[in-house]
User: Fold this.
Amino acid sequence: MAYRFSPCRNERQLEEYALYMLDHRFELHPAFAADRFIHFIDEQFRHGESVLVRTSAGATVGALGFVYGTPENRFEDKHTVRIEMVYIEPTYRGTRLFAYGLLWLADYLARHAPRTECVQFYCESDPARKGRLFRKIADLVVTEPTKFDLEDQFATTIERLRQAAAPRKERR
Assistant:
């Protein structure tokens, strides 16, 4: 299946992204309070990118949002990209969509943020499920308590994202 990754460039697209993510906020994280969620979306709109993922038929099957820089450094550390939200519809989670998303993100950052040295993301601390998957694409930096419970912080590079998403034959 073909997928189209569409960065939101106008008000209509940004609204569609925000409503889509709001519809899935508890699936993103069960502790996502509305005010905190709106804060993350606002950061993505002001300091990063919001992306809708669609099938070739035009159905929205996922979305991702990231920022250039980190809030701790007032988004001045542009060499770091922080992925803040990723959602994939349940029926598409067992497909190659995740790998296509990694490739798309690596290529997009290489073109639009070529000075990117580090890609960060957080997830609920869950070594049995997400932890195994994420350790294939990134290094676990720290596990710490946050406003959202215990979370793992991961860090990786654009090249490692590409390698992790490449078909097995190409990884050698």
Q: What stands out?
A: DSSP finds seven helices and seven strands in the chain. Residues 18 and 42 are 9 Å apart (CA to CA). The mean pLDDT is 90.
